[in-house]
Amino acid sequence: MNFSGFYRAFEERCYAPRSVIKSLREQYLAYIVPLAVLYPGAASLDIGCGRGEWLELMQAQGFNPLGVDLDAGMLQACVDLGLPAQQGDGIAHLQTLGDETQAVVTAFHVVEHIPFEQLQILVWEAQRVLKPGGLLIMETPNPENIAVATRNFYLDPTHLRPIPPMLLSFLPEFHGFSRVSTLRLQEPSDIHARSDISLTDVLHHVSPDYAVVAQKGASPAVLATFDGAFSESRGVDLHNLANRFDQRQNELMAAHHETRLNGLATHAALEAARSEVQMFQGNVQVLQSDLQALRGELSTFRRELKSLHAELATTQAARDALLHSASWKITAPLRGIGAFAASPMSFTIGKVLKYPLLSDWINRLISHLPWLHAHLRNKAISKGLLCAPLPASEVATDQHTIADLSPRAKLVHNALEQEIARRRG
């Protein structure tokens, strides 16, 4: 049975086409370009070169690369393109190279396929064969990406175990490299600017790959040409994205809480309004009941008033009929004689008081006879023909009260005083 083409077919189906991988490898050129200036035409080794994407880029930069891979099916792409590659164990080949003979040693998606002991040998031997300032680049799936760590990593049956970034970056430090940078790679381009981080983002959109770029020691002047590349920060880690997710959830919860509080306040306001409306409706009902009662009382009063008007009309008609009757006119002298006979003096005083001029003349005439004047006055008061004089204490004038009267009231008050004084005189 022939399985030589399996891994290449699997790579094409589940990983990415060759053209995509080549474009992704270009992100390392910022590290490679200064090295091409430093060591033009220098040798480089690509362990697990696969379809040769990196070999093409290294040739384009002026290096003299060599790729080594165990899988003949993967190497067929290199053969087809005429790229310098051979079948074999890349780490074993690395061990055969002389000291400080390589400008670059690379292992793209190799370290997850080998035992940890072999990984340590790779790092150690790379440090030995690299020129001063030379680079070791190791790219591998990122287990910080939960989807990668729990699913995608195990799609490849030749994977052994995922390697955490902290472990892989420590190995070059331990084996004497001058500086090490960890690059997280291939995350969605919009994930950095978005604020609406979701749980799906946390599970799937942490950088799915990462690379450790380690540089061998060299003079400060040589290392300084790589400072820009090593200072660049790339990618999205799990801690950062999870924190952004928590922040988003807190904002959503705060907004929900505020909306709920606003809803509760609105509900309370509506309930208060309903209570006021109900109270108002109750008051309206009471007022309507009172109004109905008043209308009943008014109706009763109108009926009574109508009845009184009818009685008054009847009485006035009877009175008018009596006053205009012949018997009333005939008996008028008799009534006068009867009133005179009953009380001649009262009858005479009443007739005199009906004529003011006559009354004034008699008053002046008898004013010289005080006892007669007093007797006649008392007689008129006892018969109700005159009003009794007020006590002096009641007649006393309250100047403050008179001063508070209106001009019209003051005129009436003065006229009354004059009339009282005139009658007393």
Description:
This protein is an alpha/beta fold. It folds into 4 domains: 6-236, Rossmann fold (3-Layer(aba) Sandwich); 238-280; 339-388, no CATH class; 393-425. It has 20 helices and 7 strands. The protein has helices spanning 6-15, 18-25, 29-38, 53-60, 72-81, 90-95, 116-129, 146-150, 165-174, 199-204, 220-224, 227-231, 238-323, 326-342, 344-353, 356-366, 370-382, 392-395, 399-403, 407-424, and strands at residues 43-47, 64-69, 85-87, 102-108, 130-141, 179-185, 209-215. The relative contact order is 0.06.
The number of helices is 20
Overall pLDDT metric: 86
Text of the CATH class of the largest domain: Alpha Beta
Number of DSSP strand runs: 7
Assign a percent range to the helix content: 55-70%
**In order across it, which strands form the biggest sheet?**
3-2-1-4-5-7-6
CATH topology of the largest domain: Rossmann fold
- The CATH homology group name of the largest domain: Vaccinia Virus protein VP39
Backbone structural class: alpha/beta
Order of helices and strands: HHHEHEHEHEHEHHEHEHHHHHHHHHH
Total discrete domains: 4
Strand content: 5-15%
Low-confidence stretches: none
Largest sheet: 7 strands, mixed
Query: Looking at the structure, what is the overall shape?
Result: rod-shaped
Secondary-structure blueprint:
Elements: H1 6-15, H2 18-25, H3 29-38, E1 43-47, H4 53-60, E2 64-69, H5 72-81, E3 85-87, H6 90-95, E4 102-108, H7 116-129, E5 130-141, H8 146-150, H9 165-174, E6 179-185, H10 199-204, E7 209-215, H11 220-224, H12 227-231, H13 238-323, H14 326-342, H15 344-353, H16 356-366, H17 370-382, H18 392-395, H19 399-403, H20 407-424
Parallel strand pairs: 1-2, 1-4, 2-3, 4-5
Antiparallel strand pairs: 5-7, 6-7
Helix pairs in contact: 2-4, 14-15
